[in-house]
Here is the input.
Amino acid sequence: MSHDGHDRADGSAPADDAGLPLLRALHDALLARMGPQGWWPADGRFEMMLGAVLVQHTRWENAAISIGRLREAGLLDPAALATAEPQELVPLLRRSGFMLAKARALVALAAWTVEHGGEHGALEHLDDAALRASLLAVRGVGPETADVIALYAFDRAAFIPDAYAWRLLMGLGHDVPRPYERLRRHLAPHVRAAGLSAHEQQELHALVDEFGRLAARDPALLAALAADLASAADDRQVDRAGRATQDHSGPTGLEHPA
Here is the structure.
């Protein structure tokens, strides 16, 4: 995914003009522009997982209202929610939309959690691929929701190639594919090259989505971000050139003092 819109022939991940991996450069530029976002708002792992389902196809404010109603009903406990009837949850989830489908997904997610020994049970010891596969087997949990849960609930350093990420990368001149799983595979070398920690990936996902919402109302923000990325790359080139000058050993036959 080089700046000319094509992958590199050698399969390596592209970098900006100063050699910084693309997703690292994007993380740094968005963080400098917008500051930390503080995602994911939840009191504990299980609540976060429920929020990841409830926020599908709606705004977070609506998901938060549904979580509050589940709390009032005493259903933020995995064991209690796992035995609930989905139809009984529908009135509690009305603000989130797709109430029955989400109710079934919440009950299934609760049962999955109980089956694996609770939110801090055996799930913590699964590797990234096994955790993702296990989540994808839960009714109502698709690829994006599984990756969001892995990222925020289990601190796995996954990049979330959602619609906001796709639009942002396309807007910055990168010809990237859809749908979600194809884009995820396409970006795998970029994720490895960036070397972002789980915390940094959490921040990057929040920044990308928040930027996407702002840019939808003010398209000029995309050009401003592109300028930020170019300016940061120029600064790194200057800094790297300066370090190279400082490290030079001087005229032939001379060494730096011990």
In short: The chain has twelve helices and no strands. Residues 1-13, 247-258 have pLDDT under 50 and may be disordered. Residues 125 and 154 are 10 Å apart (CA to CA). Residues 220-247 form the longest helix (28 residues).
